[in-house]
Structure formats: C-alpha cells, structure tokens
Amino acid sequence: MTVPLDKLKWMYEMMTKSRYYEDQMTEVYLEGKTPVFNIGAGTVPGEMHLSTGQEPAAVICAHLTKDDTVTSPHRPHHHAIAKGVDLKRMTAEIFGKETGLSKGKGGHMHLFDPDVKFSCSGIVGAGIPQAAGAALAAKMKGKDWVAVTFLGEGAANSGAFHETLNMAALWKLPLILVIEDNAYGISVSKKASTAIESNDLRASAYGIEGAYVKNNDPIEMYKISEAAINRARNGEGPSIIEIETFRYQGHFQGDPELYREKEEVPSLKERDPILRIRKLLIDDYGVNVSEVEEIESKVKAEVDEAYNFARESDFPKPEAALADMFN
C-alpha cells in the first residue's frame, strides 16, 4: 500500500511541527532556572517531558476525526499536535496563563481540549481506562467512533493496562492502544522490567490483534494503524500497536541520563524519521524542494505565533482562581 500524497504531506507537517515546537520548548523551559535539575519556576513551571524523536507514534492520528478520542500520558505534545489541539491555547496552558486550555491550571502534563476530544494525564497508565470509557460510550451510542490511548512500554506492566484490555476484548470495544517503546521507563531499561520482547505479543492473551512497528518507521505506522482503526470501526474490537521509537532527550528536562550509553543518541539521530519523510517526498513522490520548504516555513510561523501568544497572555488573577474553585 502506498501512502497517499496528501497524507504523507500531513505526516511531514505534523512531525516537523512537533519537532520545532519541542526544540523551542527546550530553550524556553530553561529560562529562569538553575542548571541543577532545572530548579525554579522560570517561564514554564513544573517538570517538562519532551517527545523529540517519538513523532512517528502520532501518525495514527492521520486516520482519526474530531469525533474520535485520544488520551495521552505525561509526554503528550506530539499526540496533541497531531490530534489538532489548539496550539496557542496549549502553549498558554503550559506557560500557566489565563488563555490556556484550562486557564493555566493543568500545565504541560494535564492538557485537555474537548473540542477535539483530547486529554492527557501525568499518572502512568491513567489514560488507558479513560479511553476505554470513551470507546464504550461510542459503542453504546451506536457510533463508529474509536478511542486511541498512548502509553509508554513501562505502563504496559501496570494493572490498568491488563484490566482495561480484558474488558475491552470482552466487550469488543473500538479501542487502540499505542505503546511507545523508547526502551526506558524513566531510567529502567525495558530488558530489566519486561519479561517479553515486545508488548504486542500480549494481545494474544486477550484474543485481539497486535502488531509491532520496527525502527520508528512512520510509513509502517501509518499502514498498521489504518488496519487497526478500520477493525475498530467495523466492530472487530481492540488492538495493540507497539512502535520501536527513540527518545532523543532524557526522561525529563535536566535528567543527567546516567543510564544511557554516550553513543546512543547520536546513533539514533542518524535514523531521524523526519528526514526520512522529507527524502521520500522529494525523491519518491516528486515534490519540489520549494514546496517542502514552504511546509517548514508554515510550521515555524505557526509555532512562533503560539509562543508569542503564550508570552503575551496574562497569568490568572488569584481572585479569579479562587472563584473558579467554588463555582
């Protein structure tokens, strides 16, 4: 199956936007913080978990509509961008501003945009049962909506993962679990925490479909996720997709990464998925370099505008925050 050109352009735009967004966040997050573990409120408060390198996991959103639900964990930006979350309001939320998605109260790990049915939770595995609830609601309403939940490979060892899968398989819910295997659960390697080679193998225990995407391949992710979405819409139940993806940065900004090999990250960047899509567009699909550069310029302008919007927005007034608590 060949990926349609419009979808491939969307993939490149989404992945480039996510990468540029997080490249800017890497710099902005350090503003006003001390070098040791980034202590201090700074421009962006709280911890920061970036998904640089993991963009192909969000390619599944190419097959979703606004009526489909997505839940995300504590590393959510690429999912949010691919699902169409308002970038200005998302950035303002991360900055803790009044114009944010939740008026600055949720922050980076608790993004919520009901307009596109997107939410995320900082608690490991917490979005899995929430997505199952959305899938159950869709089935009870007789809709062909699906729910996608993203999680790290470490969360596949949690009770929420197995309990939800059992119910979803039993009730044939339109649920897809996308596991981002970046090889580390915080600082613990997958080999040291998981008894099987890949979590898609767990699907057979629940009588559902499972697939593994090797080498952070966005094209393969597109194909496999399309099949999973179609099965879900046709009433054939849930699926597990695990993608071998690569986290270029630490678990959080300021992570000393003592658990990683020094050569690991440079090696991963040689296989960068965004560069692969760019090459495919130009070499195989015959897209002019100028058109690709136009996509890149558009993305940068949109991201820059979102950051400017967040910087210029006001912080919530204390009295307004108290009023919201009691209303």
From TrEMBL:
SUPFAM superfamilies recorded: Thiamin diphosphate-binding fold (THDP-binding) (SSF52518)
InterPro entries listed in its UniProt record: DH_E1, PDH_E1_Alpha_Subunit, THDP-binding
Keywords (A to Z) from UniProt: Oxidoreductase, Pyruvate, Thiamine pyrophosphate
Superkingdom to which the source organism belongs: Bacteria
Pfam families: E1_dh
Keyword Protein biosynthesis tagged: no
Domain Dehydrogenase E1 component: start-end pairs: 46-319
Signal peptide: none
Protein name (Swiss-Prot/TrEMBL): Pyruvate dehydrogenase E1 component subunit alpha
Higher taxonomy: Bacteria, Bacillati, Bacillota, Bacilli, Bacillales
Gene label: acoA_2
